[in-house]
Amino acid sequence: MKCRACTKKAVIKLPSHNSAFCPECFDRFVLSQVGRAIDEHKMIAPDDHVLVAVSGGKDSLALWEILTRLGYKTTGFHLDLGIGDYSRESRGHVESFASRHQLPLVVESLREEVDGSVTDIARATRRPACSGCGLSKRYFFNRTALRTGASVLATGHNLDDEASRLFGNLLHWHDEYLAKNRPDLPAIEGLSKKVKPLVRLTEKEMASYAFLRKIPYVLKECPHSVDAKQLLYKKLLNEVEMASPGTKHAFLFGFLERIDRFYPDSETPDPEGAFLSPDGRCERCGEISWTPVCSFCRLKERVREELARNGEKEPRPT
Ligand code: SF4
Ligand code: ZN
Question: Does residue 52 belong to any structural domain of this protein?
Fold first, then answer.
């Protein structure tokens, strides 16, 4: 198998692009796909300061590395979720990546802020762990972007993540989420601009990139990921992709071409269009909120109540 770009020996085959690449040309391919996503969706301007949300997984660490290689000013942000060995290992990879590349990093601990881990949140809210985890991440990401003065928040969601999210939202006709199923959301007062520069690259392409660039990342799966419906949607889409290469890309980008027609207000982060909170701020933490007390502060309250109900003064060790 020869590289389609230079005819050297190819190491990766990309049926969806009808291509195969050698390591050097694959590297150029990845950088050009990220550059194209950034340009097409006007994600990052040359003078932007980008806060990169890094979980310790391959996508977010590779994203941080790529944005640095492309010359953007970046700061990493890691939220320690307090999920036992998985979180310890994830944090270790993020911290060693930052020190190896001499990049600024902000780390915060969910346990210190909520008095509990993602597991405690799931117990208190009686909802799947991913639900409280997602809410907490959105809160911390936005707050840290504003505190660090970053103009853009970048996350490592890839094509598979975005296509499976779209698939799940379509299956249930979640209009409010479909309207936000885009790789770029603009800033408004109190909410940072959010972008997903890996949206043109698949999970497999990102794993190959991390391998070829020798980026160590956490191999353990989050113990809660077995519950994630997202995995089922990914599996189903991968089966379709195997039978018909390029379908995932056509599905997601076909939707993005039509999103403004389907959802004319999709770039407005507030789905209600009006604040229920008097000044648009949470009365407890001061962050942007559509209700008098924001959903994160309400979540903290529920965890505290649950701990008190069970006679636990301290969160349980993980
Ligand atoms: Fe959080 Fe769920 Fe992802 Fe685990 S699988 S890190 S609980 S969103
Ligand atoms: Zn709050």
Answer: yes
